[in-house]
Amino acid sequence: MSVTVKLAPSGHEIQVEENESILDAALRQGVMLPYSCRGGSCGACEGRVLCGAVDYPNGFPGALNTDQAAAGVALLCQAHSKMDMTIQVRELGGEEAVQPRVLPARLMQKKRLAHDVMQLDLQLPPNQRLQFRAGQYIDLLLPGGKRRSFSLANPPEQDNVLQLHIREVPEGHFSGQLESLREKSVMRLEGPHGHFWLRSEHNRPAILVAGGTGYAPLRAMLMQAFDAEYPQPLHLFWGVRAERDLYSKEAEVWAAQHDGFQFSPVLSEPDADWQGGQGWVHEAVLAAYPDLSGFDVYMAGPPPMIEAAKADFAAAGLPSDQLFFDSFEYAAAGVTGSSS
User: Percent of the chain beyond pLDDT 70?
Assistant: First the structure.
């Protein structure tokens, strides 16, 4: 059973489930609140209870003393509520919500997703967390002042491990060395970066268009939207070359689980047995939605896909302020944008 927590002074309301912290509930629903350690030891997630009461089922947090608690101060990363309540808290919005930080991270796991796509799982120090919006990206800081940018494939509420989907390019300065990258090695990252996230306040159905590993940021958006019970229809189009390049089956499962979600894979070079969409992914979008004026469109993929779609989507009535995109490319010398 969920309870309603009202946030002052914004008036935003979030639904907090049983055995869920107030901070976790806010992040799950796309509401950005300040936090850092997620363990109750830093005090960054402080709020003030104006009405109602909180408890701490995992133990009284170390950064909070009894006098503060008696005065209504609560640490929202640990605080739970069993009743409707109101909390005064500083919400993060606009540029404030995306201030980048430099952090160390340990490579916990490498997992091959496809013949040319590798998943990296990065873990931050126990007392650190990265605040970000689903859809943003990080830079990995490499020796010699080089950096490579990769979209985060996990939503903010799962920030204990940061997941990257990296397409391997043989000549790539970083991606070409993935096989030799050792687990448990430590690297530095900077983030979050970018302004690519789901604008839930628009209240329009959303079309999400992925090219290759552009699936990663859209995956994060969708996972957050499902957890938050996003009310508008969502339709994911994923364009790749061949069926083997559809490196995740998650979207098929989501389509079966969520009534408001559709998934359309599109192959540019299908074999004779393929029964799904064929051709360029943005053309499949236009075939399904010849009038885009009433939609928000989110695109993540290589620049040729983005540029072709921008022109054709505008011709189909999509206003420029209803188009959001994350453009990246693969190059031997490096990358521009947010994935490689």
Answer: 92
The domain total for the chain is 3
Please enumerate in sequence order all residues whose Cβ is within 8 A of that of 214, keeping only pairs 6 or more positions apart, or say none: 151, 299, 300, 301, 302, 305, 326, 328, 339
Continuous segment of H or E residues that includes residue 139: strand 137-141
Q: What is the Cα–Cα distance from 47 to 34, expressed in whole angstroms?
A: 10
User: Mean pLDDT across the chain, nearest whole number?
Assistant: 89
Identity of the amino acid at 253 = V
Predicted confidence (pLDDT) at residue 45 exceeds the cutoff of 50: yes
Domain of 186, in residue numbers: 96-193
Higher-confidence residue of 39 and 175: namely: 39
Q: List the CATH number of the domain containing 85.
A: 3.10.20.30
Domain boundary among 42, 64, 92: 92
φ/ψ of 128, rounded to 5, equals -125, 145
What are phi and psi for residue 181, nearest 5 degrees? -70, 125
Q: Does 121 fall in a domain?
A: yes
Quick one: pLDDT at residue 94? 58
